[in-house]
Specification:
The complex is a heterodimer of chains A (about 575) and B (about 90). With about 575 residues, chain A is an alpha/beta fold. Chain A is built from 23 helices and 16 strands. Helices cover about 50% and strands about 15% of the residues of chain A. Chain A has an 8-stranded mixed β-sheet with strand order 1-8-7-3-4-5-6-2. Chain A has an 8-stranded parallel beta barrel with strand order 9-10-11-12-13-14-15-16, surrounded by 7 helices. Chain A is globular. Chains A and B meet through helix 2, helix 3, helix 4 and helix 5 of A and helix 1 and helix 2 of B.
Amino acid sequence: MLKGKGVSSGIGLGNVVVLKKVERNVDKKTIENEQIEHELERLHMALNEVAGETEAQLKNISGTEADIMQAYLMIVQDPTLITETENIIKNDKYNVEYAVEVGFNNVAQIFQNMDDEYMASRARDIIDIKNRVLAKLLNEKNVDLSNLKPNTIIVATELTTSETAKLDFKNVSGIITEIGGENSHTSIMARTHSIPAITKVDNITNILKDGETVAINGILGEIYINPTPEEKQKLLAIQNELNVEKLELEKYKNEKTVTKDGTKVHLYSNIGILKDVELAIKNTAEGIGLFRSEFLYMDSDTMPTEESQFEVYKSVAEKMNGKEVIIRTLDIGGDKELKYLKLEKDANPFLGYRAIRLCLDNLPLFKTQLRAILRASAFGKIEIMFPMISSIDELRDAKKVLEDCKKELDGENIEYDKNIKVGIMIEIPSAALIADKLAKECAFFSIGTNDLIQYTVAVERGNEKISKLYTKFHPAVIKLIKMAIDGAHSANIICGMCGEAAGDPLFIPILIGLGLDEFSMNSNSLLKARMTINNLEKEKCEKITEEVLKMSSAVEVEERLKEFKAN
Amino acid sequence: MVKEKVILKNETGLHARPAGELAKKAASFKSSIKLNVNGKVVDAKSILAIMSAGIKYNTEIEIECDGEDENEALAEIVKDFKNNFGE
């Protein structure tokens, strides 16, 4: 048995697919006249194979995805591209691999040089197709992440955001990676989709081979290669226990979120991509408390346009059917970079040029997003949330930009929700400390615990050596949360929370005790949170909170809360 | 060979979806189909050629069809242009 760090619970049994980055060498060789025919034949075979695969994919998809595949299909059959490539074989007498490399690049270059985002994306399509054609010619095995066999265990060094976004989740039984932490994107995505995941397993991409049978326990981080019947039996028993728990949770799907003594709270989902909305609805989310809009930017090779953003926001709003959708404006910088936005390296990215700071300094970028959100607000109940607010001036400046955008839309006769609510993230201690002042100038708060903890105790989340110091049970963190909630209530506005702490059954009693109005979390934690809340009494929560607020150590707080939960 | 002149009335020009529609339609005919635009000759069966020509709103385009089904092809494509490719 191998061991790593379990980051998403559950039992997975399936066959391995190893994702390895292939180093590709395209040789440049001259060919003889009599070889021309053969090379042309190989070109057409490869093109036909790619076209055939694309046609097959088209059968299973619809909407935007289908439009993209349709464009792929036209490109792979495009006479300009084919003639360009054929000429390199016929006239310049080079081998087919080299011809594809150069021919496709030439055509892509034409698009790259056009000053238009749409056209630049077509260049990317051409390069994508080139890679698929070359993979065929060079007999590389190409894993199509969006079309996997049932019961696949993905094994990779690390999954990129765009790879995770493509993943065919229904057929993935588990994920094992060499690098990553509990809060890396892959881990969060895995938990969101209930896929067992283990990380920090050294050299696993070389240890495991494609097709091998593997069982994993995402709770303990255990990996069994070719598991024995006994091992399978043991894991199955754990799986059964989990299933029983799941069944228990199902009962809460039709219930309101309300404590035993009648205090109602909002239970919302955090989402990153459009697909997540389905999961939120399935788990009976009462709204979207955090739409991390940065995924729109991270999954794109060029700056997303107003139109493309509008479509996504509108679609989320419509799918949520009148329920609240809080869109957080671009939160980039720090740990999340964008390739097309050339940012200088910050010596200390988490204290650097990011989120609202970057947006206020790049007005065209900021306004494009705000206009897209505003336009979408005509199709549902959308609200805007600014991240990383540390002072009242930033809030005022951001609101001014929003007003400018509204005026622009008024001038263009474009509809939007004139009463759109504007709120802020409370994730910097300075904001929590002046929460009462900030509350007078916005419509809601949402406490981002992940960052608030890291800024309060000065611990970087990803650093394993000091991760013990990173704890929401620190009395200072609880004190700041209290300040934020009290500040909000002093101005009669709502206070929510969208960090992982909002879904932790151990922590929820304090949040109820402090009077938190809205709990937003990964869709998978939702039912468990509802079960927790519905079995609590606000009065008792207030008492335990009072007790905890007097404590001086995080360990003491955690122990006391464990005791409270057990009773 | 048959020819006819049209003026592009799609406001966003001949890119994205209409280019795809045109290429698909052109490819369904046996005749060779060319667009003469701003002194350039563009293969109407190639979505990449059409898009990279960057044909803008209000541009005059001469459609040239040559082959066994040239009349039918010309009529169909002129019709599509006049319908602004359904936009």
